[in-house]
């Protein structure tokens, strides 16, 4: 009966229950005489936390304020008890308890929600993909390049007669767009322009007392501040405090929004905001993102989390510009795409957004709908400069004042007519403007005359105009719209792909830069990984040293902290919208790459020194004994894996090749090598690790001292490593390129790594069992039959087949198989054809067609370049075969106990590997794909846009209603086009549905992905995960493709002035996953929001943040081996929940001494949404690695550190967040996160244990 009552959820029931709980509690307190309240669990009984606070370090910390605060807390507790549904984060009682007892306790957070949840799409007035599919992409106004037509003019005239309409209000915003690198390097721009602009501002604005200005790029501001005279610093501070200079966005750069991963996107925002707080004591409130090429919905989410009031965007598709103008919807509330079923209408993550109504942010393109008139109002005239505006514009004199004011005001009024509130924001500026003394005077004085004239006759003009800032604009429109119905419309979706029309009078799609220069995009994700790994381990090591009073270690960390600051700034700089996009000149790209490379090196060294401290027992006595497995020569080569050095043997042994028996020449049986695996993720993980060794006769021992049963010894091929000439039997020419090395071997094994841990593994000589672990090779021309003359004479003896049995490739198609699936490859091309999965009884299911195809689009000359993508309209076939020109094609099959793979090599152009695993874990469900791509020096492969395409029989067709506007043409089922739909990730943070729009060709249907994409039908989902940003598309049903690299010889006329010909050898890594969807998926109402499965999300994290491997050198010192801990758990009380990703744990700089670390760090947590119902099969589930739970974070302990305080802050850590916590949080266990949510907490560590 009680169940029925609860199910009906009657109000009476809840009332009775709450009263009952209240009485029980009071009795309970009285009986115990316990002053501190206890958290209330779902049942109302005191939860486990009464017996032990989840963080032992917090036992002594309670909220100040004596008994009054206790009574206040009790009241709060009773409210929570009687109102479970609305309860905020519960507070835990602080009773000290022994650590042993604590570790057994489980803290349950009742607000965490279910372990499996469904996300649904948020309710909004406008959904981007729905509107976009209905646009007219070849409008009549294309030739004139202006959408303002008679309809707009008539509406404008009608508004002038409307007595109800509020009067015209104009806010003029002088600005200068400073690119931190584009045609010149960052430093060169600073020296030639930006320093001068900032100097002029602080001097001139003291003279021109009503002039305003905005500044966005903190990278330039920091450089200026560090070199500016204190009087200038003070002047700037006064102008900012007075609100006359507004800092907009306040990121390190104005970030690109297509290619940037969530980690560096947030990190550069934190870096900018922390610098502003420490130096100018200001926190930005308004976003200004006017130059990124298309806008995503991640930036507004982050700005909303940083407590912003609004943001301004500029570059969106010309059809969107017209639509927003026609609908008067250019100011809208941008909402996240998802919500959980329980929040009906949450404001979290939403942000008021202003779309600038015209083409571009220059004066010509932004004063109103008619650029030829706006040109008259750009008053820059510098001797020696001849531009369209300097010829056309006339200075304002008493004679022309009235006519010019009238002309300008008509443009401004037309701009404001596109909004219901009749307020216009007018930017006055352009790239690197106000860099000349003369220009500041010209612009200010002429605009000042116009403004003064209009204000003097404001009754006549019925207008209000003044200099202002974006904050003034948002304040004005909120004021005017607060009583207006309807209010601001709501919007979900994004603005990719951007297309301009004003340049040539025909559409030009900016989808090339999603893939341009992949080598640099990969360098960025490499630094992102190393910086994140270093940040986390630095915070833990530095505070461990502080609490243990290790003076020497503290000095070293304080000295080296500056390297972390530089790495943050170099990574942040590269997220600029002309850097990671690959759209700067080649010399500028090299400058960026040098910065990324240097910081990557420094962050690897930083990890080494931090891990050294954490690995040693007691007082750290040893230094410099860790060494990265990668050698990085310089930025334009791929990092090289080095072989581990085995100690105790004769030093000369490593170079002796393996003898006939396969045992390493004279390597002594006692030799041993040791290495550390650092897992920077906060979950347990299984990882296939590969290690280079110098002899094949080895075994691997894990951190518990247990020998691993399953290892595999693979050959190292001298294919891509053409610069490793000395290491194998390779000589130049095609035959020599493909030999196995006799001096290096690869050991592959499965490592089980604890969450956030350092595990020490050992390699030992194994004379007995190693042969069973050696992989078998099948290939036609790497066997004995090769002429002896290929090898240098002394090495003929030790031909690679002495270690590896190389057999001829069997005839017919190639098969790879593991317990979960069977792959079939074409015998001629070597590319994958089908995937056949097995059911739980290991019977084969129906094969899934999955052809992998490499081909390329031919670039349209002058219309496809660094920015733009367009296929050559002259050619009958859009695609070209790229592999036909390479005759020396090889297929190599490797088969072993852990992994089997097929590698296809097409000359120097492509080495493509597909690998499956046999580990008896969830990894067996995934297929690993790796491509080494080298376009070779130009003119080879010119006008080539290379892609990898998966052709499947998955029926990814969009639902019918989206496809057609019934008013335009009657629906006929037979003619309904089948439009493929795919899901592309955005910034590694969220997924967007992409439905093909047939009217705009392939270039308008290519979308940016940062970490993955998937296609699905009612039964299956095919997910592709990647390491770095690239373009992706699904242009035909069943197909998913990603662009790999591009070479276009000509400039595309968007300002860069060069083609893209500096491609280098790049290595692209992917996971491919085929998963089942729950049977019979129907269209749900409201529609669900699609996200990855738990397994796909884990694989994506693992691909982005692989475990770092460090060799332990000088192991011959016996005391070093004794001093090292075999396993260090930095989360000793257990992992974070499966879907909670530790985005970063970032030490804050000391506000007084900014090059030194403080005792505080920002903890950023991201609850990555995942779909429980999608999985690769029950026997391959993630339960073993990461069981799902609904308990919340549980007992989180960071190393052995004790915490002093925990504060919930805004996303960038600059302000305390008041949304859910009314005061300091007592323990991390109290934190709640909604699915998909990103939150920041400021942790302050104690100075003693």
Automatic annotation (TrEMBL):
<dbReference type="InterPro" id="IPR028995">
    <property type="entry name" value="Glyco_hydro_57/38_cen_sf"/>
</dbReference>
<keyword id="KW-0479">Metal-binding</keyword>
<comment type="function">
    <text>Catalyzes the first committed step in the biosynthesis of complex N-glycans. It controls conversion of high mannose to complex N-glycans; the final hydrolytic step in the N-glycan maturation pathway.</text>
</comment>
<dbReference type="InterPro" id="IPR011013">
    <property type="entry name" value="Gal_mutarotase_sf_dom"/>
</dbReference>
<keyword id="KW-0862">Zinc</keyword>
<dbReference type="InterPro" id="IPR037094">
    <property type="entry name" value="Glyco_hydro_38_cen_sf"/>
</dbReference>
<dbReference type="GO" id="GO:0016063">
    <property type="term" value="P:rhodopsin biosynthetic process"/>
</dbReference>
<dbReference type="GO" id="GO:0035010">
    <property type="term" value="P:encapsulation of foreign target"/>
</dbReference>
<dbReference type="GO" id="GO:0004572">
    <property type="term" value="F:mannosyl-oligosaccharide 1,3-1,6-alpha-mannosidase activity"/>
</dbReference>
<feature type="domain" description="Glycoside hydrolase family 38 central">
    <location>
        <begin position="508"/>
        <end position="596"/>
    </location>
</feature>
<keyword id="KW-0812">Transmembrane</keyword>
<dbReference type="GO" id="GO:0052767">
    <property type="term" value="F:mannosyl-oligosaccharide 1,6-alpha-mannosidase activity"/>
</dbReference>
<feature type="region of interest" description="Disordered">
    <location>
        <begin position="81"/>
        <end position="108"/>
    </location>
</feature>
<dbReference type="GO" id="GO:0046872">
    <property type="term" value="F:metal ion binding"/>
</dbReference>
<feature type="transmembrane region" description="Helical">
    <location>
        <begin position="12"/>
        <end position="30"/>
    </location>
</feature>
<dbReference type="InterPro" id="IPR000602">
    <property type="entry name" value="Glyco_hydro_38_N"/>
</dbReference>
<dbReference type="InterPro" id="IPR050843">
    <property type="entry name" value="Glycosyl_Hydrlase_38"/>
</dbReference>
<dbReference type="GO" id="GO:0000139">
    <property type="term" value="C:Golgi membrane"/>
</dbReference>
<dbReference type="GO" id="GO:1904381">
    <property type="term" value="P:Golgi apparatus N-glycan mannose trimming"/>
</dbReference>
<dbReference type="Pfam" id="PF07748">
    <property type="entry name" value="Glyco_hydro_38C"/>
</dbReference>
<comment type="subunit">
    <text>Homodimer; disulfide-linked.</text>
</comment>
<dbReference type="InterPro" id="IPR015341">
    <property type="entry name" value="Glyco_hydro_38_cen"/>
</dbReference>
<dbReference type="GO" id="GO:0012505">
    <property type="term" value="C:endomembrane system"/>
</dbReference>
<dbReference type="InterPro" id="IPR013780">
    <property type="entry name" value="Glyco_hydro_b"/>
</dbReference>
<comment type="similarity">
    <text>Belongs to the glycosyl hydrolase 38 family.</text>
</comment>
<keyword id="KW-0378">Hydrolase</keyword>
<dbReference type="Pfam" id="PF09261">
    <property type="entry name" value="Alpha-mann_mid"/>
</dbReference>
<dbReference type="GO" id="GO:0004559">
    <property type="term" value="F:alpha-mannosidase activity"/>
</dbReference>
<keyword id="KW-0472">Membrane</keyword>
<dbReference type="Pfam" id="PF01074">
    <property type="entry name" value="Glyco_hydro_38N"/>
</dbReference>
<keyword id="KW-1133">Transmembrane helix</keyword>
<keyword id="KW-0326">Glycosidase</keyword>
<dbReference type="InterPro" id="IPR011682">
    <property type="entry name" value="Glyco_hydro_38_C"/>
</dbReference>
<dbReference type="GO" id="GO:0006013">
    <property type="term" value="P:mannose metabolic process"/>
</dbReference>
<dbReference type="GO" id="GO:0006491">
    <property type="term" value="P:N-glycan processing"/>
</dbReference>
<dbReference type="GO" id="GO:0004571">
    <property type="term" value="F:mannosyl-oligosaccharide 1,2-alpha-mannosidase activity"/>
</dbReference>
<dbReference type="GO" id="GO:0030246">
    <property type="term" value="F:carbohydrate binding"/>
</dbReference>
<protein>
    <recommendedName>
        <fullName>Alpha-mannosidase</fullName>
        <ecNumber>3.2.1.-</ecNumber>
    </recommendedName>
</protein>
<dbReference type="InterPro" id="IPR027291">
    <property type="entry name" value="Glyco_hydro_38_N_sf"/>
</dbReference>
<dbReference type="InterPro" id="IPR011330">
    <property type="entry name" value="Glyco_hydro/deAcase_b/a-brl"/>
</dbReference>
<feature type="region of interest" description="Disordered">
    <location>
        <begin position="645"/>
        <end position="669"/>
    </location>
</feature>
